[in-house]
Amino acid sequence: MRSCSVLAVVALAACSSRSGGSRKVRIAAASDLQKAFTELGKEFEDKTKVSPEFNFGSSGLLAKQIEQGAPFFLFAAANKDFVAQVVATGRCDGTTARLYARGKIVVWTASGGPAPVKLEDLAKPEFRRIAIANPEHAPYGRAAKQALEKAGIWSQIEPRLVLGDNIQATMLYAKEHNVDAAIVALSLAVVTDGGTSLPIDPASYDPLDQQLVVCGAGEEADAARQFADFVSSREGREVMSRYGFQLPDDKRTP
User: How many Å apart are CA 1 and CA 102, to the nearest integer?
Assistant: First the structure.
C-alpha cells in the first residue's frame, strides 16, 4: 500500500500538471542541496525556460517515495547507495547515474552558546542536546554517527541526541537554539549567518559520494537530463563549489 506522503506527492503533481503553463521538471533532491539547487534552478530556468520543481528531503525517504511511484524525473541523492536502490527497482535509468559532488559535515553551533574546539568536546556536559539527522535514512546522519563513533564518544552522547528527519531540520534545531550543537552539511553552514562551524575530518566517516539519476521517460525526463548536464556545467560547478561541495574530479583533500 502506498504511504499517505507518496499519495500527497502524486496528487500535488497531478494538480500542477493540469494547471498548464510553462514546462517543468519535478526533482527529488537531498536536503543538503536546498540552497545550491534553488540557485541553480533559477539559472537553469532563465536559460531553458524549464521550471524545476524541487522536493527536498532525506535521501532514504525520497528513494522510498520514488519506489512507490512518486512522479519525480530526477533524483539527486546524498549517497550513491540510494541511487542504486531506485535503479534496482526499475524506476530510474542506471545509465544516467553520475557522481555530481562529495559532501562534508561540520559541527555547527549558534552564536552565544558553547562552541567545541574538537569533536570530542561534544561529550562535555555543556552540550546537553546535540542534533544529527536520523542515521536510519539520512546519509549525513549516518556520517555523523560514524564520526562520533570514531571519536569514541557515541555512547556518551547518544542519550542526548535529537534526530532530525533530514539535514535541514537538523540545522533548524540549532538555529532556533533547541539544541546546543548540530552536525550538519557544510553546504548549509556556509550560507547561515552567525554561528560557528567546526570541520570534521572526512577520514572519520564514509565518503558522502552524491549521485543523481534520471527517472521515467518523455519530455520531463528529457528536461531532467538537461538539468543534470547543467549541474555538471561550468556554471553549475561554480555554484556547487561555492556551497562547499567537493567536485567529482577535484583531487584535493576535502
Answer: 35
Q: Sort residue 45 into left (φ over 0), alpha (ψ -120 to 50) or beta.
A: alpha
Separation CA 137–CA 118 (nearest Å): 26
pLDDT tens profile 127-173:
999 999 999 999 999 999 999 999 999 999 999 999 999 999 999 99
Which residues on adjacent β-strands are paired with residue 26? 53
* CA gap 66, 84 in Å, rounded: 12
Cell of 39: 540557485
Alpha carbon separation from 70 to 102, 103, 159, 231 (Å, rounded) = 26, 26, 35, 23
Cα separation of 170 and 133, whole Å?
6
Domains of the chain (ranges plus CATH)? 4-102+208-242 (3.40.190.10), 105-199 (3.40.190.10)
Average pLDDT rounded to a whole number, residues 186-194: 91
Q: Give the pTM.
A: 0.83
CA distance 25 to 10: 14
Cell of 185: 552539511
**DSSP H helical ranges for the chain:** 4-18, 34-48, 59-67, 80-88, 139-150, 154-157, 167-175, 186-189, 219-232, 234-242
CB 63 within 8 A of CB 85: yes
